[in-house]
Amino acid sequence: MDEDVVLRRRGYIMGVSLGEGSYAKVKSAYSERLKINVAIKIIDRKKVPNDFLEKFLPQELRILTILNHGSVIKTYEIFETIQGKIYIVMELGAQGDLLEFIKTRGALQEDDARKKFHQLSSAIKYCHDLDIVHRDLKCENLLLDKDFNIKLSDFGFSKCCSRDNNGRVTLSKTFCGSAAYAAPEVLQGIPYQPKVYDIWSLGVILYIMVCGSMPYDDSNIKRMLRFQKEHRVNFPHCKHLTRECKDLIYRILQPDVDQRLHIDQILRHCWLQPKMQDLSSAATSEGECSQRAEPSWMPKPGYDKKSTTKLEPQKETPPKEQSETNLEEHTMQVAKQLDVLGISTQ
After folding, report:
1. Where is the composition biased (Basic and acidic residues) (predicted)?
2. What are the distances in angstroms from CA 62 to CA 7, 44, 197?
3. What's the burial of 303, exposed, middle or buried (CB within 10 Å: 0-12/13-18/19+)?
4. Domains and CATH numbers, the chain
5. Is the CB of residue 135 less than 8 Å from the CB of residue 157?
6. CA triplet 150, 281, 211: central angle to 5 degrees?
7. Is the pLDDT reported for residue 339 higher than 70?
8. Is residue 52 classed as helix, strand or coil in its secondary structure?
9. Please, are residues 227 and 307 in contact by the beta-carbon 8 Å criterion?
10. Cα–Cα distance for residue pair 209/201, rounded to 1 Å
11. Is residue 136 within 8 Å of 316, Cβ to Cβ?
12. 37 contacts 138 by C-beta, under 8 angstroms
């Protein structure tokens, strides 16, 4: 049965296409019951890989029924037809996604970035407190409502964390998401802490918010990994960012997973405290801020200032179970996956 007919019978008037991902397409519609415009994600069981169908899709549907947070896209209804198409009716991001917003308007002023990043961090804390990890945080998955507030979306690669007998979250071996937002331990194929992976992606997003470009050039995965592992973070001088903002980004983009900030530490950081907005950037006594004598984000000798790159939509890498392997072998595997998607790694 035609999708328009299916939706019309359920009280939805189909609108324009909003986009298409690896395994789904999204269309706008008007809900006669809710009296609002909505977004409808349509997944055809016949057109998705078995591993996604058996593992990722059930996780996504389960998680969508759990989530209820002001900065997470609401799910109004989920239904499936006998033809095997799944329809997920969701809140509409009326102002589009954050990537297009920044590409159109440029980098955000720190006050605006602070507000939006606090909304995003609050959403991630909510998820992590429920032992839910996103694993595909990127600007394209951050929608903006009519008032330009952040709405976290697309839980296609999310999962509910399991715990061992000691109550610790078990490590994950699945590489998924977008390489430009992926933490170095994930790109290396090392079993990783999924919540800590989300944190790294938050750092990339905050950098993009205030700088208007990517922190690392992912056209060469091997070189990008080297810069990440050496903890190189280059900030454009023309942006005139405050010390506190740079400090937060630097401490989130920490290659050592044991030193990378946790979500509670991010929310307590001095840059995110409202009372810091009107204070001098030299005042760092409130909240959690680094007390290093010298700016720890300064480029190291020989640093390539072209390591950053312009903003482009990031294609999802098909999820794949990874066993622990050496860096050279794994970067070749990642490169092959990205080549399939048409993303150059040279």
Report:
1. 302-331
2. 22, 18, 21
3. middle
4. 3-91 (3.30.200.20), 98-340 (1.10.510.10)
5. yes
6. 45
7. no
8. helix
9. yes
10. 12
11. yes
12. no
Residue type, 278: D
DSSP 123-146: HHHHHHHTTEE-S---GGGEEE-T
DSSP at 278 = T
Contact between 242 and 295 under an 8 Å Cβ cutoff? The reply is no
- Nearest CA-CA partner of 292 in 243, 236, 255, 249: 243
Strand boundaries in 110-203, DSSP class E: 132-133, 142-144, 150-152, 159-160, 174-177
114 CB neighbour count, 10 Å cutoff: 23
Residue 154 contacts residue 136 (beta carbons within 8 Å): yes
The residue written with tokens 């917003």 in the block is: 101
Judge whether 159 is annotated as a binding position: no
Active-site pick, 4, 51, 136, 217 = 136
Which tens digits make up the pLDDT trace of 251-304?
A: 999 999 999 999 999 999 999 997 644 444 444 444 567 544 344 455 444 445
Distant-in-sequence, close-in-space partners of 237: CB < 8 Å, separation ≥ 6: none
Whether residue 343 has pLDDT greater than 70: no
Question: In the numeric block, which tokens belong to residue 327?
Answer: 């860096």
Average pLDDT over residues 29-37: 96
- pLDDT classification of 325: cutoffs 50, 70, 90: very low
pLDDT tens figures, 100-141: 999 999 999 999 999 999 999 999 999 999 999 999 999 999
